[in-house]
Amino acid sequence: MTGLALAHSSAVNTTAIIISVGIPLVVGLVIATIVVAYFNLQAHRADAVAMASYRKLAEEAVANQQELRAELATLTDKIAVVEQLMRDVG
Hints:
mainly alpha, single chain
């Protein structure tokens, strides 16, 4: 009689199904979120390193530009002196 009652009972335990599917699903989502956050962090770190390199390059370019302007001013003064000398001679 007990075997007949068990065979006849076809009730599905939804709580057990929800728990057995829900827990691994939540754990999987958490792991996926952690992995995505980790790779986003690595991308931001790489961008920060690249930006530091660009910043250093920009500072060097500004320093070189200032040096070139100073040299150009010196050459301009020398050319002015040579032009004046040519006017005096000619």
